[in-house]
Structure formats: structure tokens, C-alpha cells
Amino acid sequence: MDNSSKAVDAALKTLREVRAALTASKLGNERAGLVFAVLDAERALRAALRAEKHPRVDCSHCRRRLKPDEPMAWRWNSYYGRGGLSEALCLSCSEPADRYEQHSCETCARVMHFDIAGACHARRPLTCSYQCNYRRKLKHQRDRNRVEHATIACIVCGEMFTQARRDAQTCSNRCRQALYRRSHRK
Ligand SMILES: [Zn+2]
Ligand SMILES: [Zn+2]
Ligand SMILES: [Zn+2]
Q1: CA within 20 to 30 Å of 98's CA: 40, 50, 75, 176, which one?
Q2: 99 CA distance to ligand 1 middle (Å)
């Protein structure tokens, strides 16, 4: 196991410990301090998960850690409330009904099987893990920034300029004001 995964395990252990201490604590002052300790531990865990190099997929039945690239199944569970949640399974714990349709993780291309409810659901996972989901989000942010800084022709003077904002249409304040006056003249 590499260091980034060890850091996640350490953060998980700390979180479990402070949560247990909070549950056991009865003193008002102590509880207040422990509430903050839990929040800190949760933040540290998210940071460690974001930094983890390998996608972390644990089977929710046998608890086994899946190998990178090992195919998985997502089973839709509606009893989680708020519309339901997909549960990660290794293929040995999944049933034929869990393998109705197949997609690849958008980040690491791991094969993901879905049962019929999960395959049709709008909240179907697009990635296999927290790590892949985070990396997918980062990539989308980068793509968006690239579009925001596209070079286009000013719609007033025709001069090429680099957009400061995605919705910018004019090269300068002068052209922006000219456009504004033009559209408000009538
Ligand atoms: Zn399993
Ligand atoms: Zn993945
Ligand atoms: Zn212009």
C-alpha cells in the first residue's frame, strides 16, 4: 500500500476515535471541543482521500478492497432515503441482476456494472470512487476555464480579444458601452 493510502487509513482511524469519544462524552465543555475535533477529522479525511493516488473501492458486502482496474458493480438501494444511493460491490458479491448494463469510469475506465434501476437513474455514478470523481471534477473545471479564456472577435469593432469571462462579447469597456448604448437606443 502506498503512503497516500496509508494517510487515508490513518485519517479514518482518527475520525473513528474522535467520533467514539464524542458519543461517550457527557460533559458540555468536553463535547463542544469534540464536535470541532470531529469536523477537523472529517476535513482531514477528505483531504487525504483527494490526495490518494489509487481509486479506493471497497465492496460494501465482503469489505474487500478492489484492485485498480478490477471490474465492479453498483447496486441501487432506495432504502437509503433522499431518493436512494448506489452501493459498490465486487463481482463475486454481485448477482446477475446487478449486471444489467455496463459503463466505464470516466476517469480510470474501470468497468462498472449497473442493475436496471441504477442504469436508468439520473444519479448513476459516473466514476468508480471518490478519487476518480474528484479528478473528473478538476478536469471539468480546467475545461471550463479554457473556454472562459477563448479568443473571439469583438461583436462591436471586430478586433480579436481574449475573453475575461465566458459571456464577454466585447474587447474593451469602450466597445461594451457602445453595445449597451446601441441596445438601449430604441
Ligand atoms: Zn464483495
Ligand atoms: Zn475510476
Ligand atoms: Zn471592440
Answers
A1: 50
A2: 14
Residue pLDDT, tens place only, 104-159: 999 999 999 999 988 888 788 999 999 999 999 999 888 877 766 788 999 999 99
Listed in sequence order, the DSSP H helices in 25-167 are: 28-51, 116-120, 130-148
Q: Are 68 and 49 in contact (CB under 8 A)?
A: no
Neighbours of ion ligand 3 (CB under 5 A): 154, 156-157, 159, 171, 175
d(CA 145, ligand 1 centre) in Å: 40
Among all ligands shown, which has an atom nearest to the Cα of 155?
A: 3
Q: Is the pTM of this model over 0.90?
A: no
- DSSP 3-state of 114: strand
Integer Cα distance of 84 and 130 in angstroms: 18
Q: Which numbered ligand comes closest to the C-alpha of 57?
A: 2
How many whole angstroms from 72 Cα to the centroid of ligand 1?
9
Distance 161 CA to ligand 1 centre (A): 55
Residue 171: what residue type?
Answer: C
Find all residues with CB under 8 Å of 5, minimum gap 6, and list them.
52, 53, 54, 56
The 10 Å Cβ neighbour count of residue 41 is 20
Mean pLDDT, residues 42-64: 96
